[in-house]
Amino acid sequence: ANGINEIVSDHCKEFTLNIFVDVFLRIGNMDEMSKRKSYLFLIPWSKNISLSEMDNVYRNRFLDDLLRGNDKLVYDEVLELWLHLSSPENLEYIIDFLMSKSFVSPSLFDNVSRYIISFLCRKKKDIVIGRLVHYLTVSGISDII
User: Fold this and answer.
1) Residue 140 — φ and ψ, nearest 5°?
2) Rounded mean pLDDT of the chain?
3) Which residues of 59-84 are buried (b: 16+ CB within 10 A; e: fewer)?
4) DSSP code of 41?
5) In angstroms, rounded to a whole number, what is the distance separating the alpha carbons of residues 67 and 111?
6) What count of other Cβ atoms lies within 10 Å of the Cβ of residue 54?
7) pLDDT for 19 beyond 90
8) Quick one: pLDDT at residue 48?
């Protein structure tokens, strides 16, 4: 079934955002196993997401919904989804979003955000560390405040 999902995600890219939105709407009512299967289902579709093409409000809503779906526990499937979403074009937006959730507006999700950042850092070290170093500069600090 996963192979079919990958083929469909390649050929029906126009459905990508609708599929993510539908999963996000339902994820809060799912049991743990269904959540994990849903995240696995989304992984092939994630390559069709371009955060730079979304307006800022929609992009933040999209990432917030993804983060909100795993508020208690970070499954391996969730980490894989974040990793697959972290294309070079999307990574800047993802790191900026997770940093703002971690440090600027602490909430239930600050530990989850930090965990996802550390996971991405292990997988895409040079790119993620470069973006994190940006926050050590004066301009980087003013960007997130």
Assistant:
1) -65, -40
2) 83
3) bbebbebbbebbeeebeebbbbbbbb
4) H
5) 11
6) 16
7) yes
8) 95
d(Cα 102, Cα 80) in Å, to the nearest integer? 20
Mean pLDDT of 49-75: 82
Calpha distance 74→31 (Å, rounded): 14
CA–CA gap between residue 13 and residue 119 (Å, rounded): 27
Task: Decide if pLDDT at 101 tops 60.
Answer: yes
Token pair for 114:
């930090």
pLDDT tens-digit map of 130-142: 888 876 675 555 5
Q: Do residues 76 and 39 make contact, with C-beta atoms less than 8 angstroms apart?
A: no
Mean local confidence (pLDDT), 12-30: 91
C-alpha–C-alpha distance, residues 100 and 123, integer Å = 21
DSSP code for 19 = H
Query: What gap in Å lies between CA 75 and CA 30, rounded to an integer?
Result: 14
